[in-house]
Amino acid sequence: MNISYNWLNKYLKLEIPVEEIATLLTDIGLEVEKIKEVESIKGGLKGIVIGKVLTKNQHPNADRLAITTVDVGEKNPLQIICGAPNVKVGQKVPVAMTGTILYDGEESFKIKKSKIRGELSHGMICGPDEIGLGEKTDGIMILDANAKVGTPASQYFQLESDIVFEIGLTPNRSDAMGHIGVARDLMTVLNHKGHNLKICMPSVKNYEHKENKKNISVVIDDYELCPRYSGVSISGVKVADSPQWLQKQLKSIGVSPINNVVDITNYVLHELGQPLHAFDIAKINGNKIIVSTIKEKTKFTTLDNVERELSSNDLIINNANKPMCIAGVYGGIDSGVSEKTKDLFLESAYFNPVSIRKTSKRHSLSTDASFRYERGCDPNITVYALKRAALLITEICGGNIASDIIDIYPKKIDHYSVNLSYERMDKLIGEVINRKYVKQILNNLDIDIVKSTKEGLSLRIPPFRSDVKREVDVIEEILRIYGFNNIKIPEKLNTTICYNTDLNSEKIKNIISDLLSNMGFNETINNSLTKSQYTSLISELGK
User: Does 542 have pLDDT greater than 60?
Assistant: First the structure.
């Protein structure tokens, strides 16, 4: 799983080195397997500056080339040979200085001082495609007249680099399947080390709807497979490419942009860890959604244009006539959002993890959504995620929220109750941890302290921590933040030798010998005390 440093900084103001963050994440169980720098444009426009064309003269030995002099903010202007038909005196242009490396896909070339038809050229005036900022044209890229000469192109174009942490997420850490969850853990360990951080959660206070003209009814056949289903309609959207900031954010973690609606659902998924799915309302026959299983071997074509046979055990999102989506796994090709979509229905649900895992394996489909659903999402975040995505859609894609929020949640999945005994905690850890630190760690992990006594704590564990259900699990949470390496290891090891006449000493000796030799030890067998003259036999054998 990829976690963006810039993205984390939206929720926490991190002022510590990247290497330290990686160490802290690994120490608390989110093992960082790799750190990589991500550039929105390959090469980061290094060596490219803003220049101004001062002169332009015909090349004496080439009809299609011009000799230009370009001010790049240095003491002397540069002479550059240029073949672009649109180069003119007074233009502000991007200039690749000598030594700059430009990229064309996986290939690269270095700008060198060279002679072109007998005239020296000290750089290159660039077109948009040559620096990764547009499609191929016949000419150079002409910049705004107010661009300052000598400004690095990376600064002028406001390029951002990012650091991405590749985390080997273990199956039990479903709470860390989004940037907010990782930020929570990072905040907890940093606060334990003396910082005073708080997570800045995205606000949904401006959420409101003004009309109810796109109402969709929802029926759930099996609440065991779908304990909660939330949704809302949005009308008047314009499906197009996402803004650059959103595309860059997704690209940084390896997600390819598709269109603004789908990109927003992916953005919220990687932010909160809650999958979302958008349906084109025009394709929801009967304005009705039915969440149910379906007849064995029903044919269904998914978004990858592959026809699949559904199982009667698969949970399916249907309209009044036919299936639209394999719940929690993959959408259908006939109901997804396209450029023609004007109105959409946004789904945010909690599905049974076991059911999703079986369906995912059955169809050999592993998606970002199934990865999260099968590990267990937070059942109490569906409406918040829905509002977050709906606000982004109306902001970026236009349109209005066109219905009340549908939220079917008949049996609330509540917090787990766990009692923590200080005595048992101290005994298990082997050290007494300051009770103030214990409470601070639990509070920062969003574990509610219901009651505190001298003997221990009564706690409520949020459902998003599906791996914390016992006292020993709570103790592990405290210890991983406190630091396993901070527990002192005693220098003296005490043991009691037990003698029992009923034991077969020879058998035990052989077991221990086998164990030690299998671990790499060598066994030496010495002669017992005996008569000295027996050694003469050894001497005789050596002759």
Answer: no
